[in-house]
Write a structure and sequence with these properties.
This protein is of the alpha+beta class. It folds into 2 domains: 2-25 and 106-183, Topoisomerase I, Chain A, domain 4 (Orthogonal Bundle), CATH 1.10.132.20; 34-101, Gyrase A, domain 2 (2-Layer Sandwich). It is built from 4 helices and 6 strands; from the N terminus they run αββββαββαα. The protein has helices at residues 2-25, 75-84, 107-145, 150-183, and strands at 41-44, 47-50, 55-61, 64-69, 92-93, 98-101. It has a 4-stranded antiparallel β-sheet, with helices on one face. A two-stranded antiparallel ribbon has the order 1-2. The radius of gyration is 22 Å and the shape is elongated. The N and C termini lie far apart (51 Å).
């Protein structure tokens, strides 16, 4: 019982960490990345579909993203969706593909993006703490039902807390790496 609560908590924490990484991929740094556009959704025959499923995305230069749709008919709709995503640059349509030139980030833009990264990381910390609270409640319920002794319950609470600290350390590492990447000139 004790290990199932701990495993469920770790699984929940892993999902929160994966979600954080996915969110941070969409935050622009000084370099082009396919992650900036691959999850932008385009209306494709009435279904909102990610660009990554509709086009080949490549990075020919450090500040350029090239998007070549599998169907030429979707090109205009992709251009509108990318323009709506507000990446700081309008896509250039040459009739066959979209070219997105990313301008260099100013110091203020970098600071705003760094604060956005901090905010996203803090939201993930809150999610982890909620997971800890739920795991502690499950442990207390098991103790109440007689499946855990007082000592086992106390040990489980300690293990849950140390797992939380471990994952918060991972968030700190991710935050430091992304902030460094953002603030590089």
């Amino acid at each position: 019982m004790k290990t199932s609560i701990l495993n469920e908590t770790k699984e929940r924490f892993d999902k929160a960490l994966d979600h954080l990484k996915q969110q941070l991929q969409g935050i622009r740094t000084g370099r082009a990345s396919a992650a900036l556009v691959e999850n932008i959704r385009v209306d494709y025959y009435g279904t909102m579909t990610p660009i990554s499923q509709l086009a080949a995305i490549s990075i020919p230069e450090a500040r350029q993203i090239l998007i070549k749709p599998f169907e030429a008919s979707i090109l205009k709709e992709m251009g509108r969706a990318i323009a709506k995503a507000d990446l700081g640059s309008a896509p250039q349509d040459d009739g066959k593909m979209l070219r997105l030139e990313l301008p260099a980030l100013s110091g203020d833009q970098r600071k705003k993006l760094a604060s956005k990264v901090k905010e996203v990381c803090e939201d993930t910390r809150v999610t982890l703490r909620n997971g800890r609270r739920d795991a502690n409640k499950m442990a207390d319920a098991e103790k109440k039902e007689g499946n855990l002794t007082e000592d086992e319950n106390h040990d489980l609470h300690d293990e849950i807390q140390s797992t939380l600290k471990e994952y918060e350390g991972k968030i700190d590492t991710i935050f430091a790496a992304k902030s460094k990447e953002l603030l590089e000139v």
